[in-house]
Amino acid sequence: MSLETQLTEDLKTAMKAHDKLTLSVVRMMKAALMNEKVKQGHELTPDEELTVVSRELKQRKESMAEFAKGNRDDLVANVKAEIAVVEKYAPKQLSEDEIAKIVADSIAKVNASGMGDFGKVMGAVMPQVKGKADGAIVNKTVKAQLSK
Q: Which InterPro entries does this entry report, sorted A to Z (predicted)?
């Protein structure tokens, strides 16, 4: 089942259950997918759908951090609830140990010897973890392993 079909089904369920939060988030996700489809000019591939979901998740996490900085606990709670809804559509996130193993394998594969090879390693790692890991965590892990 495509993500768009899943969102449509969840939209109907949220409408019937009068779940305003889920309804709002699912509508935003559908709109983001439609905008991306128009921008790309073709039906989205599963990879492109994953990119849209990751972008939506990242935006909400950034918003939550900003609201927390501004001591807006009411908005933080709302965004946390939105994140929980969006995460249902995202693939399971990799643990830090799994990321470290992928990074170590990639370092060996590209024969990286120091921080000068950072770009090569990131280029090898990111396609493997796309949508399954936060880029900031991957970045931190690569830097830690290359500086050993």
A: Asn/Gln_tRNA_amidoTrase-B-like, GatB_Yqey_C_2, YqeY/Aim41, YqeY/Aim41_N
**Measured between alpha carbons, how far is 112 from 125 in angstroms, rounded to an integer?**
12
Per the structure, how many domains does the chain have? 2
Domain harbouring 7, CATH code: 1.10.1510.10
Phi and psi angles of residue 100, each rounded to the nearest 5 degrees, phi first: -60, -40
Half-sphere exposure of 148 (CA within 13 A, CB side): 9
* pTM of the complete model: 0.74
Would you list the DSSP string of 71-94?
T-HHHHHHHHHHHHHHHTTSPPPP
Give residues with Cβ within 8 angstroms of 128, minimum separation 6.
102, 106
Q: State the CATH number of the domain containing residue 130.
A: 1.10.10.410
